[in-house]
Amino acid sequence: MSIETTFLLREDEALKNWISGITVSDGKSSARSVKTWFTMPDIELQSMTFPFITLDLIDMVQSKERQVGGGTIYSNDLGGQVVANPNIVYSYDAPVAWDLYYQISTYSRHPRHDREIMKQMLQTYTPGKWGFLPLPNSDGSVYEWRHMFMESYAKRDTIVDNRRLYRNIITVRVLTEMTQDASTAAALALVQTVNITTDPTTIPTGFTPIQQTVTSTSIG
Fold first, then answer.
1. In terms of C-beta density within 10 A (0-12 exposed, 13-18 middle, 19 or more buried), how is residue 28 classed?
2. I need a labelling partner for 39 at 20 to 30 A (CA). Which of 29, 108, 185, 205 fits?
3. Which strand (E) or helix (H) includes residue 113?
4. What pLDDT, in 10s, does the model give residues 43-95?
């Protein structure tokens, strides 16, 4: 299973890829890439080379106001993903709506880096309105978009080792959903034959028999 089709891992990877496009400049370097990683799990821990951005999934809440019921039938594809057997009809329940809350923390030593990071965050990556999160395929193409709202912002500059540390904390909410995967969904076999009768004695009450003889037909 590819990461872009896995709930939670898909959103984690999408957010990290989305935020990783930030660069800053100063008098010493015209273009400096801002590294981005998750502080958890520990496998993502890295050395602190300023400036950098850390991500944390801090909460997830089932979005009952966006929840719908029912189901969907697919014959040979699911979101552009071809299933193993095109002769099988797959039945899917309505996806479960979830709101994911991420904390995005930015760190820098240079005041210009701090301002440039926040300008790009507020203008492009986590705007106050019309925010979105692209979910990429493994080849880099975008196959879905998720609404993403800035929930809060806090300025948390401090002094560490007698040096100024510029820190910003942004909380965003990603509106997403957990769907069934085509490989695990309950499969329903296609109808193979349809038997039609014109005998009134075998037709349930309330139904009208057809007026012509039709032979049994094989489908498939």
1. exposed
2. 29
3. helix 111-120
4. 555 667 889 999 999 999 999 888 888 776 665 555 555 555 656 666 667 88
